[in-house]
Predict the 3D structure of the following.
Amino acid sequence: MSKSLPLGIDIGATRLRVVWSELTSAGPRVRAVVTRDLSAGVATSGLINDCAYIGALLDEARDELQSKERRCVLAVGEPEAVLRMVEFPKMTEIERQRAAVFEAQRYVAYAIDDAIVRIHPVDEKQNRYAIGVVRNATIKSRIAALKSGGLRVTAIDHEALALARALPGYDAILDIGHERTNVHISISGTPLTLQIIAGGATITRAIERELSIDTNSAEKRKRILGTVGAGESARSTFLADVTSLLESASLRTDQLKRIALVGNGARLNNFASDLERATGLLVETPVSKILLG
């Protein structure tokens, strides 16, 4: 016997993914995944600019999955959503909430009036709390897009926490996305994300320039050939940037030894082994156990 779980929704800058999973006697298992490419500018890591378009793709994806499930979950990461550990002096709950809002202003680039701020006790005896901050407009636009697709949101997670649950046992998770690269580490049980504004698109643009071809052709070439014959200089620069990012993460924790490499950029030929040589860390491209079977 198996029980359908809420659909997992991943809305990125270039692709939308819908994951249908179920709870079995052996634990959660992914049943099927549907992916759709997105037109440029439709979505960002934060705002959804065309909710109706995203909704139509979600409806189409659910039909392809042949799933009647309408519940869904999604995740939001930095810079839209931030988690930080803080220590407050002894104060009342109302004072602590006000202090959390004041503290949150240090961590986000958007107006605090457009932020949802929550605090969670980690160690009340030591007055240690986790502060969660997320941009309200980001949450609203994502919920609107999902509702447009006939879905009902049951939970919104932080990206770092979702990845840590999917890939346990790693000291950090390095996620190479389209335009950003994040490394998620844990500090006193609370995830900390460090990032650089560079990703897979950095290599694609270099191939596009060097060969004078369009973006789609450059992306296809990168997926098939990597940077053989074009984009090698950009790849070397990107490798150096990611190496520096991991070195910065190493300064925050002495537990950094084993890294999980994920994201579309993880498919760059030999990138994991190059990172291992550059950093001395163990870098793996793992498969989550929920995909087994």
